[in-house]
């Protein structure tokens, strides 16, 4: 019998987070914790395995809030800063565990080498810098993590390829604008779909609510959770009531289990 996957939303916000610095938008002034969103990331756990998808600028805060003191690895969707800027904050894990495995497309690693050169230095490396193990992945080849097959799913964020992941009957897709027919086939028969939906108004590189719902209608997952949410989506409580049955707005700290 396969073990269930527990997923915790570490962050559900867009690149600036919610509230946005200096914004007078009503959602940014909300006292509802569900309207307060760190940068998008999730924690995956099954049996003795613990993995994180993306390590953005809120990574340290997210790990502390989740009480997470050990990870088996980090999966990166793409190179944008709201998904990778917390890379240096793997140091406490590195000091206790040694090199941390990172799974990403080779293009993403090339970007990290440019931006975090001191981590990848091989000569005269600063002794306080962490080291990661680079594991290249691509959309054509699945891989295994602690007995679970992980199926990479390539979506487009405008023209930038972004990697999503399917584990068992759960799929996680962020920064989506379009999905090819070939990649959509990898998403059939889902129990849980997690997909980005920025706001109700259209956006050039992100799905809006109606576009995300059109994908949900095609795939017919049992449950769907929207993430990577802007303050322009409106109040969590208000938007949640507008969504069809089986579709929800995720929020920071929400935990779901997919068996």
Structure write-up:
By secondary structure, this protein is of the alpha/beta class. It has a single domain, classed as Metallo-beta-lactamase, Chain A (4-Layer Sandwich). 21% of the residues lie in helices and 28% in strands. The chain contains eight helices and 14 strands. The chain has a seven-stranded mixed β-sheet with strand order 6-5-4-3-2-1-14. A seven-stranded mixed β-sheet has the order 7-8-9-10-11-12-13. Helix 6 links the parallel strand 10 (170-173) and strand 11. It is globular, with a radius of gyration of 18 Å.
Summarize the structure in short.
With 259 residues, the protein is an alpha/beta fold.
Layout of helices and strands:
Blueprint lengths: L4 E7 L29 E6 L2 E5 L5 H8 L6 E3 L5 H4 L6 H7 L2 E5 L1 H10 L1 H4 L11 E5 L6 E3 L2 E10 L2 E8 L2 E4 L7 H4 L7 E5 L12 H11 L3 E5 L8 H7 L4 E3 L5 E4 L1
Which structural class do you get from the secondary structure elements? alpha/beta
Distance between the termini: 10 Å
- Helical coverage, percent range: 10-25%
CATH topology: Metallo-beta-lactamase, Chain A
Supply Rg. Answer: 18 Å
Q: Report the CATH C-level class.
A: Alpha Beta
**Order of helices and strands, N to C?**
EEEHEHHEHHEEEEEHEHEHEE
Domain count: 1
Secondary structure tally, helices: 8
| Order of neighbouring strands in the sheet with most strands | 6-5-4-3-2-1-14
CATH H level, superfamily name: Ribonuclease Z/Hydroxyacylglutathione hydrolase-like
So what's the overall shape?
A: globular
Mean pLDDT metric = 97
**Strands, count:** 14
Largest sheet: 7 strands, mixed
Instruction: State the CATH architecture.
Output: 4-Layer Sandwich
Beta fraction = 25-35%
Q: Uncertain regions: pLDDT < 50 for 5+ in a row?
A: none
């Amino acid at each position: 019998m396969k073990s269930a996957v527990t997923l915790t939303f570490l962050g559900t916000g867009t690149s600036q987070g919610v509230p946005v610095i200096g914004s007078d938008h009503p959602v940014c002034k909300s006292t509802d914790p569900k309207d307060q969103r760190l940068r998008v990331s999730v924690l995956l756990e099954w049996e003795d395995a613990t993995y994180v998808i993306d390590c953005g600028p809120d990574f340290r805060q997210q790990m502390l809030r989740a009480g997470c003191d050990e990870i088996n690895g980090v999966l990166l969707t793409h190179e944008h800063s709201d998904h990778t800027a917390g890379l240096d904050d793997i140091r406490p894990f590195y000091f206790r565990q040694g090199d941390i495995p990172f799974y990403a497309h080779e293009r993403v690693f090339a970007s990290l080498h440019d931006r975090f050169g001191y981590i990848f230095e091989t000569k005269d490396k600063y002794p306080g810098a962490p080291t990661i193990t680079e594991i290249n992945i691509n959309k054509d080849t699945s891989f295994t993590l602690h007995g679970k097959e992980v199926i990479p799913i390539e979506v487009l964020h405008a023209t930038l390829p972004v990697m999503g992941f399917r584990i068992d009957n759960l799929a996680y897709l962020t920064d989506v604008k379009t999905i090819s027919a070939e990649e959509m086939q990898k998403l059939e028969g889902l129990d849980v779909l997690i997909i980005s939906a920025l706001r109700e108004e259209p956006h050039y590189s992100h799905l809006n609510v109606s576009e995300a719902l059109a994908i949900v209608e095609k795939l017919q997952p049992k449950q769907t959770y929207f993430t990577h949410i802007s303050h322009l989506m409106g109040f969590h409580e208000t938007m949640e009531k507008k969504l069809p049955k089986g579709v929800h707005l995720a929020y920071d700290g929400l935990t779901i289990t997919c068996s």
